[in-house]
Amino acid sequence: MSFDRGKTTITLINGQCFVWNSKQARFLREELRIVGTLCGSLPRAPMQNTHLGLPLQLMPEEVTLLLEKGLAEVVENTEDVITEEMKLEYKNKEKKSYKRQVELYTRERQEEIKRKLPQIIAGKKAKRNKVLDERRKNGEIIDDSEFEKEIEMTVEDVGIPTLQEASMLMEIPLACDPSTTTPVLVKWTYPKSDKEVLRYRVFRDLWDKGHYLTSGSKFGGDFIAYPGDPSRFHSLFIVVCKPHSASISGIELITMGRLGTNVKKTIVLSSVDENDKLCYTSLQWTGIS
Amino acid sequence: MPDGSWIQGKQIEKFHEEREKVLAEPRVQKKCDYVHGLWTNESRLVEIEHEGKSFWKNMGFTRNGRKFLHPEEALFLMEMNVLQVWYNFLPMSIEGAYCRFLGPTLTLEFHQVYAHLRRMGYVVIRHRGKLASRYEREIGLDKYQKKKERQLGDPMTSSLLTKKNSIEELAQMEGLENCVTDKMCEHEKVAGEEIVASENSQIKMDCAASIEKAHSQETEIGGNEEMGSSLILQSHMNSIKDSAECLNDNVTSLSPVDDNILTTFKHSDATNSAFSSESRNASGFQYKSSAWDFRKIAFPNFGAECGDVIKIQRSESNLTPGHVVCELDCYDFNRMAHINKKKDKKKDLERDRKLKFSNNNSRFSSYQNSRNWSEYKVCLYNWRSNNWRQDQFPHLFADGLQPLVRPELATSTEAILQQLQVIKSSTKPPRNSKADPPAVLPHFDVYSPNKKFKKTNPGTPDFRVIVMRCDESPPDLKTISDIDVYFDDDVPLHCAVVDAGTVMFNTLSFFTLPTEVSLG
């Protein structure tokens, strides 16, 4: 099965959507303002939570938007039946990798030896002279010219131990090997319920207006809207989706207003009105006493 | 705010460039440095060939002599570049691991919370159930569970996440618990009354146990050990607040113990059965009462003998271990040769005694003849109330309006506060060690980074974690209070809410309203 390589591949695993490619992750954020959440550990510094690595987990709204724009496809990985050839192929691959590593290792060592050849020769000379000195002390007659003799040496004369197979480098790959798994397109059904439809409408509208949107659960809302890339700018709005006719209790109003003030953001109540138009209401704590 | 300037655009571009580079970094390692594991779809576990030094201390478990890792552990280790997992003779990628590992035994949220806590350095294990009751912890019995639990392997493998299986889960847990309590009973037999005796409130038992210990040891090693144990006894006495004053009475209060021993041990039986009755019913374990008849054993009477040398009669041969033979009929035990060998220390002790007790002799003499600890306490109380009579401050108690705290009740800061308290602060349900397991159990037990951590005997966790999705509702307050009552160990319960890859923690904890205490 062949896919459009220009599209971002979104893998559906257990109902959640992931992007596994760093180029695609960058493309989504830089060009499409789709932020997502990194949720793996960073290979360089795995024991911390401030900077995380791939995979990039996407909100369902983000996936629907990308699909509507025709910029992505949702796939599910299905295992191929593992044949003997595949196993053999892997073995060969590993062997090839080993051979290549041995080559590279040897070459690197040679370069190093070449750089350090003068030191090596000086060292050898010193060692020889020490032995000669010792023999002279013991009564042997050794000509002074023996001490001055040069040692002829080339790079090849220095032995290089071969790279052990156990110490060859291996990699834990991030994404699946395309030769052993087949991605299958799946149908994406979000949004389904009324609440989901409302959330998606709001998401889409705000995205169209140029905002960067992330999940709002950190601040108790549906989304958080950033004016620019979240790495450089603070968000200004907490978006809360409410059905147009749903009543809001006084206590809820106070809760939201207080929260918005405390985090210096504006609460945006968003809904779809009778004319099927999106309607935004901002809520702020006025502090009149 | 974004202003569309060239410099801002450049900065952001640079950021994206670097980010892409960092994200694209591979996980590379020498082949020999990897631990290799095998994934099996059926067990949904990863079997490892050899234990990695770095992680085996606080991860994985052994079953039938084979070493396994839970999928979340394996996935975390793969991300840490430590473990290479093989499936069908092919190495697994991290994406492949996500595809295979996530399923009925591991949800994504579960893994994300696990990895989040692990990355912070915490030791995270799947919830093990209730390991020990409050009483068991207080007397240190929770440190005595060993092999059996290890053999059980992993009690929670299959039922971890599915709430439907909770009945099964509970059954398993109960099994575990029984086993643990069983274990403890066994240890009890070995450690004997000594452990029980460490409870301060039961000083009587203290004396009895120490004396018994002293007795069994005397024939074995002579007087040396014995004096040691009577020193223990003294230190027991010391550890109780009032007992410093009681050192004089020590001698007198010990002598009647002989008579009381039988009742004392009955008492200890009762306490034992209090905490093990639950499991005993289930497992059919019967607690054996002591085979020793203490009425027939002649204990050396340290209290009555006043001199420095005490004569100790040879005990009956059936009380000594088989290989020990008593040659003499009577041993001379020089008290002064064993106690306080350093002379200056002895002087200090003597001086202290004089300082403390010489002035109070009149006060103590009235109840010098109290026969045991409780009688002494009663005496002390009576003395206090007699000596602090209202008529010392008659003007205060003359009217209808009287002080809230009577002088005779002011025995400690706590007692005063108790008197001053208008509203009872207890809103918590009463502690009940037999509480039923709650409907929802925590998912993880979390421990602070700790070198001494043992996965076979993890001890009391630093906090427990319940994992939930953003769109799920958390357990209701009743369930949470049930959990609190069930575990009965004041370990905070955290609720980890996961939404689209972000993990947020909230703590749910019961607390009593603080009482202000000013000392002085």
From TrEMBL, chain A:
It is found in: Nucleus, Nucleolus. GO terms for molecular function: nucleic acid binding; tRNA-intron lyase activity. Keywords: Coiled coil, Lyase, mRNA processing, Nucleus, tRNA processing. Residues 9-76 form the TSEN34 N-terminal domain. GO terms for cellular component: nucleolus; tRNA-intron endonuclease complex. It comes from the Eukaryota. Pfam families: tRNA_int_endo (PF01974), TSEN34_N (PF26577). Residues 88-115 form a coiled coil. The active site is at Y226, H234, K265. The keyword tRNA processing applies. Residues 198-278 form the tRNA intron endonuclease catalytic domain. The keyword tRNA processing applies. SUPFAM superfamilies: tRNA-intron endonuclease catalytic domain-like (SSF53032). One of its GO terms (biological process) is tRNA-type intron splice site recognition and cleavage. It is an enzyme of class 4 (lyase). tRNA splicing endonuclease is a heterotetramer composed of TSEN2, TSEN15, TSEN34/LENG5 and TSEN54. tRNA splicing endonuclease complex also contains proteins of the pre-mRNA 3'-end processing machinery such as CLP1, CPSF1, CPSF4 and CSTF2. Belongs to the tRNA-intron endonuclease family. This is tRNA-splicing endonuclease subunit Sen34. The lineage of its organism: Eukaryota, Metazoa, Spiralia, Lophotrochozoa, Mollusca.
UniProtKB/TrEMBL annotation, chain B:
It comes from the Eukaryota. InterPro entries: tRNA_splic_suSen54, tRNA_splic_suSen54_N. One of its GO terms (cellular component) is tRNA-intron endonuclease complex. GO terms for biological process: tRNA-type intron splice site recognition and cleavage. Keywords: tRNA processing. Residues 21-87 form the tRNA-splicing endonuclease subunit Sen54 N-terminal domain. PANTHER family: TRNA-SPLICING ENDONUCLEASE SUBUNIT SEN54 (PTHR21027). Belongs to the SEN54 family. This is tRNA-splicing endonuclease subunit Sen54 N-terminal domain-containing protein. It comes from Dreissena polymorpha (Zebra mussel).
